């Protein structure tokens, strides 16, 4: 039987999805980050499928989401996107440390994935944490600076006045450069990496992940370790097909 356990890892609310009889054993771990305005419970389908295959799956709530929602307005939340990504990166380190402390990671097998904002987080995490063994980016952008500029442009097109100055924008771009995977492909280190993206996505540009993949494959001695799955006509919503393909990939590489 697969169990769903509500826990807190260093004050981070998480769901732990794992086979009941193995919940206290060291297992391969997969941590999956949800998208913007979503919550950890929305990723239970992929977590359940992975748990069936013997993984411990950790679903955290991001800052200002789920159990961490603090009544912030939707407009204010729109300008917290990158604060949330940076906090996700800190949370990932905290989750890893908590699992290490409990001796729950088997043979250093620790993977990370995410949807949209969670996929952006996953890409950034690869620049920081060499202990990540494999990763899955579901309709996320590995081009953080380019994506940030796209988001700003989208706001400007609406006529809304940006609540940040040009100097603050410049500072934002500089901070993102340090975790922009597209400019640090040497950090990939041949680690298994899976991309899925619908080519009709109106939110996160399909070209960001697809162009990255075509460049990144040159950094792999074993090109089969990096995969890109394109879904024709798919918009900004992960399909059941994509979830099953991601789970099959993780089972092979982690």
Question: What is the strand and helix layout of this fold?
Answer:
Blueprint: E1 2-9, E2 12-19, E3 27-33, H1 44-52, E4 56-60, H2 74-78, H3 81-101, E5 105-115, H4 117-128, E6 134-138, H5 144-158, H6 166-177, E7 193-198, H7 206-216, E8 226-231, H8 240-253
Parallel strand pairs: 3-4, 3-5, 5-6, 6-7, 7-8
Antiparallel strand pairs: 1-2, 2-4
Low-confidence stretches: none
Give me the strand/helix succession: EEEHEHHEHEHHEHEH
Query: Major sheet: order of its strands?
Result: 1-2-4-3-5-6-7-8
The percentage of residues in β strands lies in 15-25%
Structural class based on helices, strands and sheet pairing: alpha/beta
Question: Can you describe this structure in just a few lines?
Answer:
With 254 residues, this protein is α/β, with parallel strands linked by helices.
List the keywords.
254 residues; alpha/beta; eight-stranded mixed β-sheet; 8 helices; 8 strands; 39% helix; globular
Polypeptide structure, described:
- Helix content is 39%, strand content 22%.
- By secondary structure, the protein is an alpha/beta fold.
- The chain has an eight-stranded mixed β-sheet, with helices on both faces.
- A hairpin with a 2-residue loop joins strand 1 and strand 2.
């Amino acid at each position: 039987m697969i169990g769903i356990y509500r826990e807190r890892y260093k004050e981070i609310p998480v769901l732990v999805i794992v086979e009941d009889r193995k919940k206290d054993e060291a297992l391969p771990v997969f941590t999956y980050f949800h998208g913007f305005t979503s919550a950890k419970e929305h990723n239970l389908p992929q977590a359940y499928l992975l748990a069936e295959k013997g993984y411990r799956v950790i679903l955290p709530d991001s800052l200002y989401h789920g159990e961490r929602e603090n009544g912030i307005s939707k407009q204010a939340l729109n300008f917290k996107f990158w604060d949330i990504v940076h906090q996700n990166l800190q949370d990932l380190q905290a989750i890893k440390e908590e699992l290490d402390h409990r001796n729950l990671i088997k043979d250093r097998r620790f993977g990370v994935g995410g949807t949209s904002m969670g996929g952006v987080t996953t890409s950034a995490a690869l620049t920081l944490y060499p202990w990540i063994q494999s990763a899955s980016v579901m309709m996320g952008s590995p081009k953080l600076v380019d994506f940030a500029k796209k988001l700003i442009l989208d706001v400007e097109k609406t006529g809304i006045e940006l609540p940040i100055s040009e100097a603050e924008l410049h500072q934002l771009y500089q901070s993102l450069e340090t975790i922009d995977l597209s400019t640090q492909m040497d950090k990939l280190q041949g680690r298994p990496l899976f991309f899925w993206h619908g080519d009709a996505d109106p939110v996160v540009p399909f070209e960001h992940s697809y162009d990255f993949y075509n460049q990144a494959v040159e950094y792999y001695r074993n090109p089969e370790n990096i995969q890109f799955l394109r879904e024709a006509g798919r918009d900004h919503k992960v399909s059941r097909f994509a979830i099953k393909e991601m789970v099959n990939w993780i089972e092979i590489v982690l």
